[in-house]
Amino acid sequence: MITTRDLTKVYRSRGRDVTALDGVSLHVRPGEVYGVIGRSGAGKSTLVRCLNLLERPTSGTVTVDGRDLTALAGRGHRAGRPLRQARGGIGMIFQHFNLLSSRTAQGNVELPLEIQGLSRRERARKALELLDLVGLADRARAHPAQLSGGQKQRVGIARALAGDPKVLLSDEATSALDPETTRSVLRLLRDLNRQLGLTVLLITHEMDVVKAVCDSAALMENGRVTESGGVTELLATPGSRLAHELFPLGSAEPGPDRTVVDLTFHGEAAARPVISRLAREHGVDASIVNAAVERVGGRQVGRMRVELPGPAEKNAAPLAFLRDQGLTVELPGEGTR
Fold first, then answer.
1. Which of 84, 157, 319, 328 has the fewest CB atoms found within 10 Å of its own CB?
2. pTM, whole model, 2 decimals?
């Protein structure tokens, strides 16, 4: 549904070139929730603005629903019509809501419908339907100042759906919200994804967002995608940076008298008593140093750091046992076994 190839964006700032995107290639499948995660300055917001050509890339291509947006002219009323039509299939929600304070919730949702030329009756009917879809049917006549942050974002989502888009882009849409409101908005986005068959691309710096709703994810650093793929597949990939970021275990201090082992549990292995079996079958006193278990993509996934007595070369059999149980086994500072 969304494909970028070698996408580059260079800004001119204070007499020098600043590269915000450096050869970004993404592939987002129809109907999935895709998270793009990274720290401030990684290029995430520039990427999302290039996806709907609010920013025109310096080079590379953006294809959405089979149309190469970068090939469409964007200047002048007639020349820009194909791009405007293509943008009609892309909804956008923002971090700070971008609602018009002079309009009610219904009036804000009606705005893109006015631009489309719908009659007053049709605008009102559709706006009320969309507000009902996001759980705000009873707040249609409220102005933004009368709404909570979560309610404002729901109005923003309803407005983004006014054009019946196939793609919904979210630029840090939950970062201004408290944790409970964030969870409710993410549940709404997942529900809309499933009910309407929407493809959703989320820009975020919060790992909890990726864990909560994303099917796939990409890690951005310094304008580049350094890792991408299905979330559960990445968690099962040895050495995955994203897996380590999703389940941080802190720094490790291996020594000659112990073997530090990082384990990733996924699939059926997450429900088996692997550590107790290790102790029973191999006579190993494994010390659990750190652990985190959560549901990711509807599946239980976790990471655990354990210490085994003795150096790694003397723990070959226990390490082989852990690997045979379907766990990803990594030795911090020594690589993956």
1. 84
2. 0.85
Please report how many Cα atoms fall inside a 13 Å half-sphere around the Cα of residue 180, on the Cβ side.
Answer: 1
**CA–CA distance, 47 with 57 (Å, rounded to integer):** 9
Give the integer Cα–Cα distance in Å for 170 and 192: 13
d(CA 260, CA 159): 51
Its sign, for the CA torsion 24, 29, 30, 33, is negative
Instruction: Report pLDDT for 257.
Output: 85
Pairing status of strand 67-68 against strand 328-331: unpaired
CA-CA-CA-CA torsion sign (239, 243, 245, 247): negative
Cβ distance 99 to 112 under 8 Å? no
Tokens representing 265 are: 């549990």
Determine what percent of the chain falls in helix, strand and coil, rounding each to the nearest 5: 35, 30, 30
Beta bridge partners of 3: 27, 63
- Residue range 4-19: average pLDDT? 91
The separation between CA 135 and the C-alpha centre of its own chain, rounded to angstroms, equals 23
Q: Is 335 a residue whose pLDDT tops 80? A: no
CA 15/CA 52 separation, integer angstroms: 27
CA dist., res. 311 & res. 174, Å (int) = 45
Tokens at residue 138, please?
A: 């009873």
- The four Cα atoms 231, 236, 239, 243 give a dihedral, to 10 degrees, of 40
CA neighbor of 63 nearest in space, from 4, 122, 18, 112: 4
Instruction: Tell me which residue of 229, 220, 245, 228 sits closest to 46, measured CA to CA.
Output: 220
Give strand pairing partners of 27.
Answer: 3
